[in-house]
Amino acid sequence: MVDVVGFINDKKEEMVQLLKEIVERESPSTNKELTDLLGSWLAEQFSRLTKGEVTKIENDQYGHHYRAEWGEGKEKLLLLAHFDTVWPEGTLDSKPFRIEDGKAYGPGVFDMKGGIVQGLYALHALEELGKKLNKKIVFLFTSDEEIGSPTSQELIEKEAAGSDRVFVLEPAMGVEGAIKTSRKGVGIFQLQVEGKPAHSGIDPEKGVSAIGELAHQINYLHGLTDLSLGTTVNVGTIHGGTTSNVIAAHAEAEIDLRVKAQSEFDRVIPLIQNLDPINDQTSVEVTGGINRPPLERTEDVQSMYSAARSLASEYLNIELPEKETGGGSDGNFAAQLAPTLDGLGAVGDGAHANHEHLIVKEMPVRSALLALLLMHYGEEKGGYEDE
Ligand SMILES: [Zn+2]
Questions:
Q1: From ligand 1's centre to the CA of 361, what distance in Å?
Q2: CA nearest 363: which of 115, 18, 39, 123?
Q3: What is the CA(108)–ligand 1 centre distance, in A?
Q4: Residues 127, 161: one domain?
Q5: Most C-beta atoms within 10 A of its C-beta, which of 222, 254, 255, 363?
Q6: Rounded distance from Cα 329 to ligand 1 centre (Å)
Q7: Domain termination residue (choose one: 263, 292, 321)
Q8: Do residues 116 and 79 make contact, with C-beta atoms less than 8 angstroms apart?
Q9: CA of 120 to the centre of ligand 1 (A)
Q10: How large is the greatest C-alpha to C-alpha distance in the chain, in angstroms?
Q11: pTM of the model
């Protein structure tokens, strides 16, 4: 196993070069032309580095997805990566790829193009060193994670359902590079309130304010937050009314619900869906529901994390902390169907933010960690054994 670590470490400059090339191919989720260009380039890189097979999964709406395979076996291990970013076309002009003080900057470098490079080099090492695993590796490259995975969710779930383990190349958490062993589930709801319009000066007694009703509902909804359980309800947007001298006939709001456990979805969702008007002359209607289920810190997740921590300490001489996050990823979908470990990608900071960067010297370390995990779960002969 030590040979894998050394091999990848020697490839650091190549990895940085590939990182530059992938970051300089912009890929905003909603720009099909650009994501398609990057997708086909990634497929070539996969074939070149791993000699594996790549299949294009056609997509009319967003960029084509790619399903890549390496090795052989009845069972499979699944790697998840998305190659779209939140950054619009032209971001490179103001934020070109650059390295400064050991940090690489550029749109999507941390979320999650760095993770893709690390994943490719983990498989490159296994291929070049002639490692034979008893499971096939399936590497999914998807194009629409940053907009909620509308066209890839089904594909991810189908692959995860048939997989022995799932590894998600989303960024690690914090500069200490923690593995994400718990991700909150996300619910999104729309609330519509109808009142009765009237002139606020001439006939105030004839109107019923939808805005007044919405204000009460917001207080109630925010009161559902229970930080001790990790449950939060946030009314994130409100709209309503027409002009200041009209009692508002209509108001609406968008609600974000986050929970750590499915049991909290079961408890809180009915409270949101069955809101009663406080003023019975108004009506309220709620639509929406679960967007991503929670990735819970199950025994499976804990055992994968402790395998990763042991490998990291034994072969890479690093401590590998774990953390929970309120953000969702495709790991949330996969975790419902197979044991899933998330946050195995780049170490750095600033996902979706102006200071987005990754720490260059961590790239070969995390790439090697992934290779070691694949060997561990793929039972490479003479490999790491559980104590
Ligand atoms: Zn991401």
A1: 21
A2: 115
A3: 8
A4: yes
A5: 363
A6: 7
A7: 292
A8: no
A9: 17
A10: 87
A11: 0.89
Q: Which residue has the tokens 């750095």?
A: 348
Rounded distance from Cα 86 to ligand 1 centre (Å): 9
CA of 134 to the centre of ligand 1 (A): 29
Contact assessment for residue 324 and residue 182, using Cβ atoms and an 8 Å cutoff? yes
- What is the Å distance from ligand 1's center to 246 Cα? 44
Please tell me the distance between residue 351's alpha carbon and the centre of ligand 1 in angstroms. 8
Cα(142) to ligand 1 centroid in Å equals 11
Count of all residues that appear for the chain in the document: 387
Q: For each of the chain's 387 residues, which pLDDT tens digit applies?
A: 779 999 999 999 999 999 999 999 999 999 999 999 999 999 999 999 999 999 999 999 999 999 999 999 999 999 999 999 999 999 999 999 999 999 999 999 999 999 999 999 999 999 999 999 999 999 999 999 999 899 999 999 999 999 999 999 999 999 899 999 999 999 999 999 999 999 999 999 999 999 999 999 999 999 999 999 999 999 999 999 999 999 999 999 999 999 999 999 999 999 999 999 999 999 999 999 999 999 999 999 999 999 999 999 999 999 999 999 999 999 999 999 999 999 999 999 999 999 999 999 999 999 999 999 999 999 865 444 443
Do 277 and 303 sit in the same domain of this protein? no
What's the CA-to-centroid distance between 112 and ligand 1, angstroms? 5
Residue 108 phi, psi (nearest 5): 80, 5
For residue 345, report the distance from its CA to the centre of ligand 1, in Å.
9
For residue 292, the CA-to-ligand 1 centroid distance in Å is 14
Q: Compute φ and ψ for 256, nearest 5 degrees.
A: -115, 125
Instruction: Measure 206 CA to ligand 1 centroid, in angstroms.
Output: 51
Neighbours of ion ligand 1 (CB under 5 A): 111-112, 170
Tell me which residue range forms the domain holding 210.
185-292
Structure tokens at 234: 């946030």
Domain with residue 274: its CATH number is: 3.30.70.360
